[in-house]
Amino acid sequence: MPHGRINPRTSIPFFLVHLVPLLAIVTGVTWTAVVLFLVTYWGRMFFITAGYHRYFAHRAYRTGRVFQFVLAFGGCTAAQKGPLWWAGHHRIHHRYTDTIDDPHTPMKGFWWSHVGWILSDETSERPEGSMKDFEKFPEIRFISKHDFIAPWSLAILCALIGGWSGLVIGFFLSTVVLWHSTFLINSLAHVFGRRRFETHDTSRNNWALALLTMGEGWHNNHHRHAHLARQGLRWWEIDVTWYVLVVLEKLHVIWGVRRPRADEHSDRELIGGVNGPDDADPREPAAA
Predict the structure, then answer these.
(1) Shortest CA distance to 115 belongs to which of 2, 3, 6?
(2) Mean pLDDT (whole number) for 158-168
(3) Average pLDDT, stretch 281-287?
(4) Structural domain includes residue 284
(5) Coil, helix or strand for 268?
(6) 5 is a domain residue
(7) What is the SS3 assignment for 119?
(8) Which end of the chain is more exposed for a tag (fewer CB within 10 A), N or C?
């Protein structure tokens, strides 16, 4: 159980990364660096939401081991630790949402739910027994244990393509913006927004966060129907990750996509709807 304290020593690299983009004063900002920023931000955001979140944490669709590893490696490039750590803590979050046992509980304040919990020794390891379904894959264990390989590989690639500006803007600034865009779902999406469903938590739908995170901002929808691959339940709820997943399904890269039923769109669930059987543990993992 997190006690609400961060480890100042081990948190130093996290804070130093926030200072690196200031080097743009020296390196300048090239158009190549701007393009790299956009590609690395949106690309990695997809791997976080479609891979780490909807696949590894909730198993909202199925895929083979090759694309499963692509999702894991791509997620690691976001420098948010490995898929077993990320998805393991997220599963605990859904099990104990907004209680003292929630890893990023808002009961410890906005700072804690936003980033403090990540910098605490109490959450440095993944919850024991939380990811048994994916631990059986040696390649997933490897990339989770060596989660530094992917982000530094991307950093080197950005430097090779865009020089120092590509590294500073295309990788480091993109990483910082990506971090806080992701973290806002844990913090701001439990504070500001509208509640369509009456759930046992403070989750809210926030259209601005949905645009920033490719669909993750429909957070109240997600907490009501955590098993779904689609989070924007209405046609006007933009969920870019869902659109990409539909294309991947048509290409037979993924299958078994968990779609909302007709009644999950219905206003009949707006009052009195609470987390129930639909939000139980997801299905089987990827095909071997």
Answers:
(1) 6
(2) 98
(3) 44
(4) no
(5) helix
(6) no
(7) helix
(8) C
Structural domain count, the chain: 1
131 domain-assigned: yes
Helices (H), 98-204: 110-114, 132-135, 138-145, 149-165, 174-186
Q: Which residues pair with 205 in a beta bridge?
A: 194, 218
Altogether, the residues listed in the chain come to a count of 288
The answer as to whether 1 is a domain residue is no
255 DSSP β-pair partners? 62
Q: What is the dihedral of CA 172, 176, 181, 182, to 10 degrees?
A: 90
Q: Can you state the percent helix, strand and coil of the chain, rounding each to 5?
A: 60, 0, 40
**Would you list the DSSP string of 235-259?**
TTS--HHHHHHHHHHHTTSEE---P
Side chain identity, residue 172 = F
For 197-229, the pLDDT digits (tens) are 999 999 999 999 999 999 999 999 999 999 999
Q: Using an 8 Å Cβ cutoff, are 163 and 24 in contact?
A: no
Q: DSSP strand E in the chain: where?
A: 62-63, 254-255
Render pLDDT for 98-143 as a digit per residue (tens, 0 to 9): 999 999 998 899 999 999 999 998 888 888 888 999 999 999 999 9
What is the pLDDT averaged over residues 39-43? 98
Q: Is the pTM above the cut of 0.70?
A: yes
Residue with tokens 């907490």: 223
CA distance to 11, 79, 115, 153, 242, per residue, from 175 (Å): 16, 7, 14, 13, 23
Domain that holds residue 104: 12-279
